Structure formats: C-alpha cells, structure tokens
C-alpha cells in the first residue's frame, strides 16, 4: 500500500475524529447530561458499536454520496474530507453541535463546481429533503415513544428505585444501538469519498469471513471516530445533554432511542429493499444528521410538555450552524482546491 494514500486518507481520518468529537453528544449526550451514566463507561461502549456498525452497515449510504459527486482523484478526495473536517471542527470548538453530513455535502458540491462536474440534482434534492424530514420524524417518534413509556409506567406500578435502574440499563442499551446506527449511517461522511481509490486488499480471517477493502477503510474511519469521542466530545455533550433543555432520565432515554430508530431507518438496506419489494414508501439510503435527529427529539418532547423548558436561543444557534456548515465547507473546499492544484501541482480531478 502506497504511503501517499495514507497521507491523503489522513484528512478523512481527521474528519472522522471531528465527527466523533461532535456527534458523541447525539449518542449519549442526554444520558451524561442527566447524570444517569458515567462518560467513560458509555463512551467505550459506544466506540465498540460504532466500529461494528461502520464495518457491517456502512456500504448503503456511501453509494448515495458517490452518486452526488464521484470524487475521482485522490488529492480531490483529500481536500473534500479536509474542508468538511475544518468546518465541523471550527464550529465544534464553540461548543455547538453541527451537522457533519451537511458539511460533507457542501464540500462535495464545492469539488463538483471546481472540477466542472455536474451535481446530480435529484440526489441532492433527496439528501436535502432529509434535512427537514429527519428532525420532524425524530420528533414524532420521540413523542410517540414518550407517551407509550409514560402509559406503561402508570400501569406497571414500579418502585422509583426500580424505574431508575431500568432507565439506566435502557440508556446504556439504547446508546449501543444508537452508536451502531451512527456508524452505519455516518461512516460514509468520514471516508466515503475514498472508496473509489481504496487500495486495501481483502483480509481473510479463517472461517470467520472476509473483510472487503471497503470494510477495511470503514474500520479505519470508525477508529478515528472513536478517538474523537474519547478525546474531545465533553464540551459539545454538555450543550446538547443539559443546556438545550433540562432532561429527566426518561426523556434522555427516549431522545437517544428516537435518534437511533431514525438513523437505522435511513441506513438499513434490507428494510429499504423490503419496503420497495412490497410497493411501500421507503426512506432514501442517505447519511442523515444525527444532530438533527437528536435536536428534533428533544424539541418534540419539549413541545409535548408545553415548550417552556426549551432554550430557544440555543436552538436558534444550532439551526444557524446547520445552515452555515455546508456553506463554510463548500467555500473552504473550492478555495483549497485552487491552491492544491496551482501551488502544489496536485491532480485534484480527472477528466471524464
């Protein structure tokens, strides 16, 4: 394997690290913010399941991003990933969680514009529609789950200590499911642009099975995401976990569960194929924003309770971040590609 590939891949790993630092709040920010689970415990569990989800479930959404813009030069893929990473990292430093999915889409469009390649408007419209559908769907799912859980508690007559114990266990289990969903849905954001130029060889592990080159690439990206979670995620976690709205343990559990369900709906190839085979409407297989899913769930529960507990000022800042992320990454990518091609003499795109 050429060292040059590893050098170019470093920007994708940096993006993975930024994704972990930013999106850990979406996996277990509410659990930590409600002081029901220790950060270290839930972070390690989440890292394991992110790797699992990335390796075994990440292929579906990566194909959609490839349709938006097939970045066909290694130096171009390097800059797409770096531009998105810089946009996410710069905004994560403010303590506000932003959408890495939107940053990546912005960077890919920036590459398309610079390379003179057409952007598939149908795919772009499909992706952009999820930026509205995702938080709305998550809010609806959270409200339904919250109502169902409250009814169940009313008829179960469980002691408060037993409720507390069940909620703690539920938060850990749900965080594991959510981490798997995040890996399956969002690993394409970190390293999906390197799939076409991937030089890895298949890895055979006895009778256990074979890891494809794509799975090896996704594994490396997932490790970078895990490092981001362990090293730089606490500040963002406290923004989503407690500052947006004071979370009860039950609310924290429902938020994480709703987010996991929504991400799985947008990344499950088998569910997508089953729905289409039965002529039922299927959600597109696209990397959606786990940030939007969590915010939608929190706001949904907040509105169910009357809306008075929601910090609308923080909601407004987060929405501004969602709008700014793709614009910032597009601008960074376009300008950087110019310098990469004309100053460093790198091939940033190949002719059709």
| Averaged pLDDT | 86
Return the structural class: mainly alpha
How would a crystallographer describe the biggest sheet?
2 strands, antiparallel
- Output the strand order for the largest sheet: 1-2
Task: Specify the helix fraction band.
Answer: over 70%
Number of helices, where a helix is a run of at least 4 consecutive DSSP H or I residues:
13
H/E element sequence = HHHHHHHEEHHHHHH
Shape: globular
Low-confidence region ranges = none
Tell me the radius of gyration.
Answer: 20 Å
β-strand percent reads under 5%
End-to-end Cα distance, whole Å, is 26 Å
Number of strands: 2
Task: Furnish the topology, listing elements before pairings.
Layout: H1 3-33, H2 39-57, H3 59-68, H4 74-92, H5 100-115, H6 121-156, H7 160-191, E1 203-205, E2 209-211, H8 213-232, H9 234-243, H10 249-265, H11 269-277, H12 290-304, H13 312-342
Antiparallel strand pairs: 1-2
Helix pairs in contact: 1-2, 1-4, 1-7, 1-8, 1-9, 1-10, 1-12, 2-7, 2-8, 3-7, 4-5, 4-13, 5-13, 6-10, 6-12, 7-8, 7-10, 10-12
Polypeptide structure, described:
The chain is globular. Helix 6 (121-156) crosses helix 12. The chain is built from 13 helices and 2 strands. It starts with a helix and ends in a 10-residue tail after the last helix. The protein is an all-alpha fold. The mean pLDDT is 86. The chain is 75% helix and 2% strand.
